[in-house]
Design goal:
191 residues, globular, ion transport, potassium channel activity, single chain, 0% strand, 10 helices
């Protein structure tokens, strides 16, 4: 089956997730800078989550550009990814509203970890469909950056109970690793 509906549906879901997140930002009841200061944790968590969703959207786009078609397994693997991404607004809001307390920061990391695992599963299902010699398989290679991300999330989750700001810093580090689009797929498709 064609991949167009999967791309369109995924784009729509990610757009809705972003919309939900921005609607959760509450307008302060004051008209000076002091009125904004209590919202700083909420805004910081929003910015990080916006970046993460942008990273997933960008890499998802590149991923689907590297494949010719999808099947039922791909559809379900993609739904699995979208499920975890759909929890980002909840985890973001809880973390920000509670000023980066340990449990909300750990839960945020759990959502990121499970989204990363779901993305990895999606890549493996696509490679299984298109073959280990496909442009996608060759572009992803060993996917060291993806595996390293999972390790960092797994370390940050328990670390949140020791120092939630260090865990939050690890989430920022992983986002920074992915901020620039993954060029492996683009390079492989143009060769």
């Amino acid at each position: 089956m064609g991949k167009g509906r999967l791309e369109a549906f995924s784009d729509a879901v990610i757009a809705i997730i972003l919309t939900i997140m921005v609607l959760e930002l509450k307008v302060p009841h004051g008209d000076d800078w002091a009125a904004l200061s209590p919202l700083l944790p909420v805004f910081l968590s929003y910015v990080l989550s916006f970046i993460y969703l942008g990273i997933y959207w960008n890499n998802h786009h590149h991923l689907l550009q590297a494949v010719r078609h999808v099947n039922g397994y791909v559809l379900w693997a993609n739904m699995h990814l979208l499920f975890w991404l759909s929890l980002i607004p909840f985890a973001t809001g809880w973390m920000g509203e509670n000023h980066f307390a340990a449990l909300p920061v750990a839960l945020y990391g759990g959502v990121l970890l499970l989204a990363a695992i779901a993305y990895y599963i999606l890549t493996r299902v696509l490679i299984a469909l298109h073959g280990t010699d496909s442009p996608l398989a060759l572009a992803l290679g060993r996917d060291l950056k993806g595996k390293l991300s999972v390790v960092f999330y797994a370390l940050a989750i328990p670390l949140a109970f020791v120092n939630s700001w260090v865990a939050f810093g690890i989430y920022i580090l992983v986002a920074a690793m992915w901020l620039l689009p993954d060029r492996r797929i683009e390079r492989n498709l143009t060769v």
